[in-house]
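Morning. Coffee machine broken again, so started the prediction first thing and wrote up yesterday's gels while waiting. Chain of 322 residues, entered below exactly as on the submission form.
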Amino acid sequence: MLTVANAVDHLRRRGVLTGGGTATLLTGGVSGTVVLVYAGDRRLVVKQALDRLSVATEWLAKPERLLTEAAALALLHGITPAHTPAPVDVDPVDLVLTMTAAPAGWQPWKSVLLDEPPSGARFAGVALSLGRIVSAWHRQTSGVPEIAERFADYEALEQLRVAPFHRVVRDRHPALATAIDACVTDLTTARECLVHGDFSPKNVLVGPDGPVWVLDFEVAHVGAAVFDLAFLQCHLLLKAAHRPAAAASLRAAASAFLTGYGPVTSPRLGWHTACLLLARVDGKSPATYLTPAERDRVRSLAADALAAPVSPAIEELWNAFE
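Came back before lunch.
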């Protein structure tokens, strides 16, 4: 198992380092052990996937998903090299991935959205860049047989997304089954492009002068493009529920993201977003920063959207949250 104590030794064994270094555990995630290593002027991140995620309820997932993450990182770094870490090494036996670390001083975008005074330019500028990044990924991986074959393992998608999110909330809200089942069908049958699968502000790092990195590709798969779009919309809506004073700036960011992405072809973006909202209050991984009253509000608004006879437009969801 990867630890702070053995991370530097691992890098020496793999030939990544020849000398010493210092290691620090990075916290905040639930799916892996992540260590930051300083070695001279090099900053490296070393990551190993957990087979049991660090949440209150039992949540198991195969650690071999790290190999999928390594392959997705290599592919997408080739498409947008300025917007991901660079892959350095992958150990296929111990299932450990090494990549470059962001410069000191970069922040998770989640922290910016939750803690900084609302600023339309600060929020929307990052969101516009993210829309362009994920659009490039989707366009350049669409219809490529080799990519479809390499990322055709859907077990991690089921273990990390469909089962703990959609299937759990379907069991808890059977009256909403029609909409939830339609979204599950999209996710389990569509084969459109390479989908990130965890396109969340916690997986975005922002530099002080505007650069953006996207991290964490362990749920990458060839699937439904709408999932990445809904995932980010969901997280921006959750932040708006938690920070009503920033709701207008967060809505501007959500709009900028879709502008950067371009035309959305799925007619069910609203339902997919509402499914994920409901999952973040009643699924296996609830959003910890929401108060009980905020969770109730998110649950009610998401359920109303999923009870509609057709998927609402994403603007209708935002109208309800503001």
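The longest strand covers residues 32-39. Going to sketch it on the whiteboard this afternoon.
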